[in-house]
Amino acid sequence: MIVFDLRCTSGHVFEAWFASSAAYAEQREGGRVECPMCGDRRIEKAVMAPQIGAKSNSKPDMASPQAIKAALEQLAQAQAKALETSTWVGTAFADRARAMHEGDAPVTQIHGQASLAEAKALVEDGVPVAPLPFPVVPPKLAN
C-alpha cells in the first residue's frame, strides 16, 4: 500500500491510499479519484514531506490511544454544548440556512441534514455552514 497527499483544482488537500503508484495513475486517469470535499476529479499529487524514521534512541511523536480518546471526548462534549443552543431542522437545513443568509428569516443557530450537492451550493453562495465532526441523532430518534 502507498499513501499520497492529493490536491484538487480548488486547492483542497487530502490523503488517499492505493495499492501502488500504477493503481493511483489508473484510477486517476479513469476518473475514479475525487476530492472528498468538493467532488472535483481533476486531481494531482500534492507536495509531501518524506517519512523519515526516528533515531533509535528517540521516542516517536505519537499520541497514546488514551490521549486520542480523551481529545475525541473533549471534541464531542464541545459539539454537544454548542448544539444546546441550536435547533434541529432536519432536512430543511439548506433552505433554512439560505433563507437566514438572504435575510428572509431571522438568524438563529440551526443544525440538520444536507445532501452533498446542497452543502456545495451553500458554500459556493457564501452561506456560512460547516459540517459537524460527529453524527447527530435527530431529536425524535433519541432515547
What would you call the shape?
Answer: flat
Count all strands and give the number: 5
Given helix and strand content, the structural type is alpha+beta
Radius of gyration of CA atoms, rounded to a whole number: 20 Å
Estimated helix fraction:
25-40%
Figure out the total of helices: 4
Give the neighbour order of strands across the main sheet.
2-1-3
Low-confidence stretches: none
Largest sheet: 3 strands, antiparallel
Distance between the termini: 42 Å
Strand content: 15-25%
Order of helices and strands: EEHEHEHEH
Mean pLDDT: 87
Quick recap:
This protein is α+β, with helices and mostly antiparallel strands. It has helices spanning 21-29, 65-83, 93-101, 116-124; strands at residues 2-8, 13-18, 43-45, 87-90, 110-112. The strands form two sheets. Strands 2-1-3 form a three-stranded antiparallel β-sheet. A two-stranded parallel ribbon has the order 4-5.
Question: What does this molecule look like?
Answer:
- The longest helix has 19 residues, at 65-83.
- The N and C termini lie far apart (42 Å).
- Helix 3 links the parallel strand 4 and strand 5.
- This protein has a three-stranded antiparallel β-sheet. It has a two-stranded parallel ribbon with strand order 4-5.
- The protein has helices at residues 21-29, 65-83, 93-101, 116-124; strands spanning 2-8, 13-18, 43-45, 87-90, 110-112.
- By secondary structure, the protein is of the alpha+beta class.
- Helices cover 32% and strands 16% of the residues.
